[in-house]
C-alpha cells in the first residue's frame, strides 16, 4: 500500500532540512533503497539523509504527523 505525501508539509520540511530528501520519482531512489533482505522489499514514500540532529528531529516529526 502506497501512502500519499502531504505536499505542503513536505515543502515545509524542505525549508528546514539540511540533508537530502528522496522521493520515489528521484532518479537515484531505486539504487538508494537497495534492500539487504530480499524477503522484505519495502518502498518508502520518502527517504531522508539527515545531515545533523535537527534533521533527524524534523524527519521523525514529518513521518509521525504527515504520513
Whole-number radius of gyration?
A: 12 Å
Helix content: 40-55%
Order of helices and strands: HEHEH
Morphology call: globular
| Derived structural class | mainly alpha
Kindly, what is the distance between the CA atoms of the first and last residues, rounded to a whole number of angstroms? 12 Å
Query: How large is the share of residues in beta strands?
Result: 5-15%
Q: Uncertain spans, ≥5 residues at pLDDT below 50?
A: none
Number of helices: 3
Q: What's the pLDDT, averaged over the residues?
A: 88
Describe the structure.
By secondary structure, the protein is mainly alpha-helical. Helices cover 42% and strands 9% of the residues. The longest helix has 14 residues, at 53-66. The chain is globular, with a radius of gyration of 12 Å. The model has no long low-confidence stretch (mean pLDDT 88).
